[in-house]
């Protein structure tokens, strides 16, 4: 007889994510995951040695899911087109993955990043560096020549879409059908500054 899938790593992380969606990061404790999943506490501790490891695993799984698609989109088209597609992707991914989006909206600090193991902090830094390198490369393809211009590209594809998503998801308002196009239009307007 196979193991109960709710007690495997992903199943336990799904439970932790549900707790975070319902009550924020503070609700994600080892005991709460065991209780809600029905897993023996030993099963939880077997996969995650402590709460910081659990919180890091949850955050890293969510951010990796988001960033892999984001980087693929931005690298699929050169320059401006990739950046606009990435802005749209932020919103469409959040619409398709609201529980993971909710985790990300809290921020890594809310999930105790300072208490994570060094390897987990390094994994996050590496993933973020790859993501922002893709944004910076696309900005350079558009003609960005200094930090301020690169920052406008970051604002176009990260800051503005994040603002659209955060305000609506935090208020349980849902994302309007036109939200992706709102993000794309805002990105185009900001990116006009980089156009030669």
TrEMBL record:
The keyword DNA-binding belongs to this UniProt entry's keyword annotation: yes
InterPro entries according to UniProt: Homeodomain-like_sf (IPR009057), HTH-type_TetR-like_transc_reg (IPR050109), HTH_TetR (IPR001647)
Assigned keywords, A-Z: DNA-binding
Superkingdom of this protein's organism: Bacteria
Residue span(s) of domain HTH tetR-type: 6-66
Keyword Iron applies: no
DNA-binding region per Swiss-Prot/TrEMBL record: 29-48
PANTHER family recorded: HTH-TYPE TRANSCRIPTIONAL REGULATOR RUTR (PTHR30055), HTH-TYPE TRANSCRIPTIONAL REGULATOR UIDR (PTHR30055:SF223)
UniProt-recorded name of the protein: TetR/AcrR family transcriptional regulator
UniProt lineage: Bacteria, Bacillati, Actinomycetota, Actinomycetes, Mycobacteriales
